[in-house]
Amino acid sequence: MMITINEDNLFAVIIKGSLGLVVFLTLAGWVLFSQQFALGVLAGGCIAIANFFWIRNVLQRILGQQPAKATMYAQLRFIARLSITGLVLYFIITSGSFSLAGLFVGLSVIVINIITLSLCSALRAGG
C-alpha cells in the first residue's frame, strides 16, 4: 500500500521515517560496529529530530505574529536552539561514551530521509 505524501502529512512522514531510520541505523551500528557507534547514532538522531520539531514550532509561531515581533522572536529562538544543541553536543562528545562517526550519522537522519523522500517522489512522478 502506497502512502500519498502531501502538505498535510509531510511532517509526520518525515518524522516517522526518521525515527525508523534511527532505529535501523542504531541496531545495524550495534551489530556491525560497536555499542559506542550505536549510542552515537541514537544520540545524534534524537538531537536531529528534536531540532526539526523545534524549528517547525518556531516557524509556526512566527507566521502568526506581527512582522516586527517575529524577527526578534526568530533570532532569540535561533540563538537558544543553537546554544542548547551546542551544549548537548559538547557533553556528548566529551563524555567519551559515544562514537563521533555514529553521532554524525545520527545527526544526518533528517537530511537522509528528506533526500530519500524527494528521490522517491521524483521517480514516482516520472522525473
Molecular structure report:
By secondary structure, the chain is mainly α. Helix 1 packs antiparallel against helix 2, helix 1 crosses helix 5 and helix 2 packs parallel to helix 4. The radius of gyration is 17 Å and the shape is flat.
Topology:
Layout lengths: L9 H23 L2 H29 L3 H29 L4 H8 L1 H16 L3
**Number of E-type strands:** 0
Structural class: mainly alpha
Number of helices: 5
**Helix-strand topology string:** HHHHH
The mean pLDDT is 90
Overall 3D shape: flat
Short note summarizing the structure:
By secondary structure, the chain is mainly alpha-helical. It has helices spanning 10-32, 35-63, 67-95, 100-107, 109-124. The chain has one domain (12-118).
Q: What descriptive keywords fit this protein?
A:
flat, 127 residues, mainly alpha, 5 helices
